[in-house]
Amino acid sequence: MARVTDSSGGLNKHRDPREPNRVDCGVIIVTYNSAGDLTRLLASLPLATEGLRIRTVVVDNASSDDTWDEILAHDDVLGVSAGANLGYAGAINLGRQYVEPCDSLLVLNADLILGPGSVVALSETLKQCNAGVAVPMILDEQGRLYLSLRREPTLIRGLGDACFGSRLAARPGWSSEMIHDRSVYLGAQMVEWASGAALLISDGCNRDVGSWDDGRFFLYSEETDFFRRARLAGHRCVYVPNARVFHRLGGSGTSPELAALMAVNRVRYYEKYHHRPASSVFRAVVGLGEMLRVAHPWNRLAFRTVLRRKSWAKLPGEPRPSRTDLRSDRSG
Predict the structure, then answer these.
(1) pTM of the complete model
(2) What are the angstrom distances between the C-alpha of 288 and each of 274, 281, 294, 309?
(3) CA 7 to chain centre
(4) Distance CA 9, CA 217 (A)
(5) Less Cβ crowding at N or C end of the chain, within 10 Å?
(6) Chain Cα centroid distance, residue 22
(7) What do you get for the CA distance between the two ends of the chain, in Å?
């Protein structure tokens, strides 16, 4: 059972007389041992959302540091203690229960700093383009561009990424899931999917897609799945380069087990939407990418784990029955 605290009635800080509990933007921040990061993110939120009525919910995945104390120190947020580490998708699903009603839903990693006006820019573009999701430009702490835009995973793109990785960045788009061309990041455009670190989701898209698939995806590939389901529901994603956020890369934690989980969840995602022959080939492609990098111990573990399906259950966030009602669109 989640433990909830709202130290000052922050949910009602900005009331709309026509609909007392509705706000322009509901904010869900997912934390896990994020005390220092959360301080900076919450400090950046007012200027990023200036002029918007917001409701902020912080879902804590059983942190062992001072994250909960940091949540309690802010009288304008609703803190929700998950009681266990639910992963990213699971925490978002929990937060959705407390953040509505809202015209849009902002999902954030805790290890971000929002640029002034960034959420306002996302909100305005979301409405102007009649899109379902808006994503910002992501920069690292030194202001360098993070390549956050993606294409839908395919066998050919998977093979290209397995063989070349970040090398030959100028290769054709059909051979890479990541968009490497930095000039593309200069202009607003529709994209298939993007990093899940910061997403503004329209109320209609949020309702149409429903719960995130926390059964399959504890961490990694949950945003790939969310974007695909949004597209299936008829919603588009727009990239907004004048909305900028700064990301402390690696703030969600890194370990050999998480590296293996990332590889395995790429396979799980592909299996969700494709029949066995194509899925088996894609699994082999993911394994090939790890095998070509076995000099690194993390890649060795990922390679062994991808090959041994029985070992998947030992990874962080062992899969549980999915909360999503969507039938898999097995299209290939």
Answers:
(1) 0.89
(2) 19, 10, 10, 15
(3) 28
(4) 33
(5) N
(6) 24
(7) 40
All structural domains of the chain, each given as residue ranges with its CATH number in brackets, are 3-247 (3.90.550.10), 256-314 (no CATH)
Q: How far apart are CA 218 and CA 221, in angstroms?
A: 9
Interval 178-207: pLDDT, tens: 999 999 999 999 999 999 999 999 999 999
Cross-strand bridge partners of residue 78: 6, 57
Please name the helix (run of DSSP H) or strand (run of DSSP E) that holds residue 290, with its range, or none. helix 276-291
Q: How confident is the model at residue 166 (pLDDT cuts 50, 70, 90)?
A: confident
Burial class (CB in 10 A: 0-12, 13-18, 19+), 246: buried
Q: In the predicted model, is pLDDT for residue 248 greater than 50?
A: yes
- Helix (H), strand (E) at residue 162: helix 155-164
Dump pLDDT digits (tens) for 229-241: 999 999 999 999 9
* Residue range 300-323, pLDDT digits in tens: 999 999 999 999 999 988 655 554
- Tell me how far CA of residue 80 lies from CA of 73, 241, 277, 293, in angstroms: 14, 32, 43, 40
Peptide bond into 101 cis (omega under 30): yes
How much helix, strand and coil, in percent to the nearest 5, is found in the chain?
Answer: 40, 20, 40
- Residue 95 · residue 78 · CB < 8 Å: no
| Torsion 166-169-171-172 (CA) sign | positive
**What is d(CA 113, CA 37) in angstroms, rounded to the nearest whole number?**
8
Token pair of 191 as six digits:
């994209």
Q: What is the pLDDT of residues 85-139, one digit of tens each?
A: 999 999 999 999 999 899 999 999 999 999 999 999 999 999 999 999 999 999 9
> Could you give the angle at the alpha carbon of 325 between the alpha carbons of 191 and 320, nearest 5°?
95
Please state, in angstroms and rounded to a whole number, the distance separating the CA atoms of residues 15 and 19. Answer: 8
Cα-trace Rg, the chain: 19
